[in-house]
Design goal:
single chain, alpha+beta, Spore Coat Polysaccharide Biosynthesis Protein SpsA, Chain A, seven-stranded mixed beta barrel, 8 helices
């Protein structure tokens, strides 16, 4: 019996040793596998970094010939589509003399799988030096493109264009409703001190350019003071409401606005005549807007965000403040006669040191409400047809900021403009929400959701715009007649 217990104890002890041995083996194997995983991972990361660095040095090189002094000495460029085949600038298509140089017109980018158009180009030296192109392209997964930067070189009695080719970086503008196409920026980095005269965007470096944009350079170290401009989204549906556009321009002029930029998709004869007269006087810029994308199905509302941002950059360094508003909207101060006076009032009343835009709450003056009683006493048809005098009843409750609000921005501090607020500022700046007792946005329109139920909401009578009644009537009559 004793011998049996000894045998059993011996067997149990051996089994325990065996289990411990197997556990140590598993632990060693697990440690080995962990070490191998991190080793392989480290090799992959190192290889990826090295590979990207090599590609970056090959793909980001400026290609050049001519007499300009460049910081980079390399003279090769890599084509995305040709297996990283090296080419030199002399092998690329020359300056497209067959194209008309444009500073604001939709032009096609050939060779892309999806629609890709460019409209205008601006020199932007803030943060990094770039040529910033306003365009429209695919919202998700936009295609890669190249920028052919054209420099004019004067050589004795002749001149010619040389090019520098760089990869374009596409930045889709945020407000796009997730439609197939969106307004976008194409960023073309500059690595020398000289600003190019023009730029072409191509899908492949060997493609012949199908577009030619003048590079607009408005840069000015001293920002003009108290100069206000207005940007309006594209006019469409054969817009022909001449009284509305006369009232819009003349009331904003009384408010201190100097210049207006419009985009012509389709307008009627009478409005065309009105705008042509203002353009001849230097107060209006009218740009063609023939974008080959289906509005509301392929792109948001005639590509309005391309227009708003084009106007933003077009106004930069020429005007101190820019309003991005519609034809049925007015920023109306409560205590000041003009917008420059309002901004000066806010600057003294509030801390505006880092302000890049001023946001104004929206107030609906629904057109279904009855006209003001005083309209029936007007002795001329012009006064009786001015909406800011006819409609004085507004909704009591104002929309919060960023909902239906509009804004006045400082263009040199603004990077990306939206419809109701600025999406991106130069770092260190932001929006000031203007108190409603200083100014609000007067918005004259029908009920936003259809029908007439909107006029059942609580309302008040607001005759602030009557401050301009006499001078506005005379100004509109002078143009209308």
């Amino acid at each position: 019996m004793k011998a049996y217990r000894i045998a059993m104890g011996s067997s149990s002890g051996g089994k325990k040793k065996y289990v411990n041995f197997r556990n140590r083996q598993r632990a060693n194997m697990s440690f080995f596998l962990v070490v191998m995983f991190f080793a392989v991972f480290g090799i992959i990361v190192f290889t990826e970094i090295f590979f990207i660095d090599e590609r970056g040095h090959a793909g980001g090189v400026l290609v050049r010939h001519g007499s300009l002094n460049y910081q980079h000495k390399q003279d090769r460029v890599v084509d995305y589509e040709d297996g990283f085949q090296i080419v030199t600038e002399n092998q690329l298509p020359p300056y497209p003399d067959n194209l008309t140089l444009a500073d604001g017109a939709w032009q096609n980018v050939n060779g892309t799988r999806y629609k890709f158009f460019v409209f205008s180009a601006f020199y932007d030296q803030r943060r990094q030096r770039n040529v910033r192109i306003i365009g429209a392209t695919k919202t998700r997964g936009p295609e890669r493109v190249w920028c052919r930067l054209w420099y004019k070189v004067n050589d004795f009695n002749s001149s010619y264009h040389m090019s520098v080719t760089v990869p374009g970086k596409i930045k889709v503008i945020r407000e796009n409703w997730n439609l197939k196409y969106s307004a976008c920026f194409v960023m073309c980095p500059l690595t020398n001190r000289t600003v190019p005269a023009a730029v072409s965007v191509v899908a492949r470096v060997r493609d012949h350019p199908a577009n030619l944009l003048a590079v607009i350079n408005n840069f000015n170290e001293s920002i003009p003071a108290n100069r206000f401009a207005v940007c309006v989204k594209p006019l469409h549906f054969d817009y022909n409401r001449e009284m509305q556009i006369l009232e819009f321009i003349e009331l904003n002029r009384l408010l201190g606005v100097e210049h207006f930029t419009f985009y012509n998709h389709t307008i009627g004869h009478q409005v065309a005549c009105v705008l042509r007269d203002y353009a001849d006087r230097g107060m209006v810029t009218m740009l063609p807007w023939q974008l080959n994308m289906v509005s509301q199905k392929e792109i948001r509302t005639e590509g309005l965000f391309a227009a708003l941002n084009d106007c933003l950059y077009r106004s930069m360094y020429k005007y101190s403040h820019v309003l991005l508003i519609d034809l049925d909207e007015y920023v109306v101060p409560k205590h000041n006669d003009t917008l420059p006076q309002l901004i000066d009032y806010l600057n003294h009343r509030l801390n505006t040191r880092t302000t890049g835009s001023f946001s104004f709450q929206n107030a609906f003056f629904y057109l279904q409400w009855e006209d003001d009683d005083s309209v029936y006493g007007f002795d001329d048809p012009v006064s009786a047809n001015l909406v800011t005098l006819r409609k004085t009843r507004r909704r009591s409750k104002l929309h919060p900021h960023k909902q239906r609000s509009k804004y006045i921005c400082k263009p040199e501090l603004t990077v990306e403009a939206g419809n109701h607020f600025v999406w991106e500022f130069v770092p260190g700046h932001g929006t000031l929400n203007v108190p409603a007792d200083a100014a609000i946005l007067h918005h004259y329109r029908i009920c936003e959701f259809g029908g007439d139920d909107c006029i059942k909401t609580a309302s008040v009578v607001d005759t602030t715009a009557y401050r301009y009644k006499n001078v506005l009537t005379e100004a509109v009559k002078a143009r209308y007649n």
